[in-house]
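Duplicate of earlier report; TauD/TfdA-like domain-containing protein input re-posted below.
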Amino acid sequence: MEFSCKDFKVGKCEGEKLVDGETIPLVLQPSEANKNDLESLLLDLKNNKEWFEQMIIKNSAVLLRGFDVKNAEEFNKIVETCGWEDIRYVGPAPRTHIYKRVWTANEGPLSEFIYYHHEMVLFKECPLKVILFCEIPPPEGGQTPVVPSFKVTERMVEEFPEVVKEMDEKGLRYTFTAPGKNNTGSMRGRGWEDAFGTSDPQEAERRAKALGMELEWLPNGGLKTILGPRNLTKIFEGRKGRRMWFNTIVGMHGRDISSATMADGTEIPENVVKRCSEIIEEESIQFKWEKGDVLFLDNLALLHGRRPSLPPRKVLVATCK
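Output:
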């Protein structure tokens, strides 16, 4: 689908990149200077729903910039206007509910780098879209870099064809240890009670099973989650047959509280994990947040992360089916 919409003007942002003929992110601005108010934006999104969604899939990321979006309530109106069903976040990141469908992004220390990932990649159902809103841009750092997932697959297949083939055929197995209560001093400090929305161990087990997880209870009140087998790569409908690097081996391999192996227990070679991390970084796309930015990500096509930053930084998130 060609870009064609009278209600938005195509802009540019520092750091955007042309990937396989598409600009990431596609920057959309008000068509006229006097149309940057929230009500005009909501009307334009309502009138162009199908086109807008196609732009997200076509370009993998769309950045609304130059609109007067002030807070969580206004961000929520944008999310609800798009009409996509909500999906509750499940994962290790500590987050706080702000308003209706809006949550804080990972509340781990700003000094830490949050590694590239597809949101909820390990679960049976993950968001199709991740929407981020910048209420307070950081004075330095704090970018949300994105990576075209298919580019990682292409390069890994080129450099490690046999290992990639083995991992694809066997699948992957992950483990992750969670505390009982939240620890906001860690970017992976979300407690299992918050993650599963219950303090009842039996109910937690039931909800974990529905997500495709096994649990092992630990003496300290925490638990170990076991997930597998999981795919290394996936191909999704409507995305040019691209083979996405739909896993989190780099983020979980060899960590204190997590592990990633092949599903039969075979270790993933350290040099493969290290080189994969380098490739992901080499393919990353960075841009600086501006106040009022709203970024729509195709979660099936892009990995995303967070650069360390100086405070203050306030980025809010909504996840959609």
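The two ends are 22 Å apart (CA to CA).

Merging into the original ticket.
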